[in-house]
Design brief:
The structure is a single chain. The protein is α+β, with helices and mostly antiparallel strands. The protein has two domains: 74 residues, Winged helix-like DNA-binding domain superfamily/Winged helix DNA-binding domain (Arc Repressor Mutant, subunit A), CATH 1.10.10; 82 residues, no CATH class. Helix content is 60%, strand content 13%. It contains six helices and five strands. The strands form two sheets. The chain has a three-stranded antiparallel beta sheet with strand order 4-3-5. β1 and β2 form a beta hairpin. The longest helix is centred in the middle third of the chain and has 28 residues.
Amino acid sequence: MMKVIEKLYGSDGRKIVELLLKSSDGKSIDEISQETGIRVNDVRRLLYEMSQEGFVAYLRSQKGDSFWYNYRWYTNIAMLKNALSKRIDNVVKVLEERLEYETSTPFYICPNDLTVYTFEEAFENNFQCIHCQADLTEFDNKQIINHLKSLLEKLKKFNSSTL
């Protein structure tokens, strides 16, 4: 899971998540910055990005009688798994839409500049390339379809077995 965090938020994001996982009562932005050596502004930015996806969260408490608040950032394995599962579900949805588009739309390609056209675009241009006027040929997108199916299978398997 840490590899995924690092891919999404870089090595600094990974450091922050690892630190928060070790903390039982959360950490302030200043504490995270001091303990990781990451600039305060970068810590703040990463925390907000990760909180929007549900990888981290915070507890807010008021400082005495003042109008200032303390924020304690935290995470746990369940939060990380849930956020990652939601992210995978979103990617699966996008890939399924793309697969539907690829399987339901005929494509044509220019043999010279390799511009790909939908059937409608090719029809509007009399099945000629708009750049070089070459005759378009039907484009076989079976490799794209197979690749999308493979990705979907892997993501679904990962999401159901690992999480």
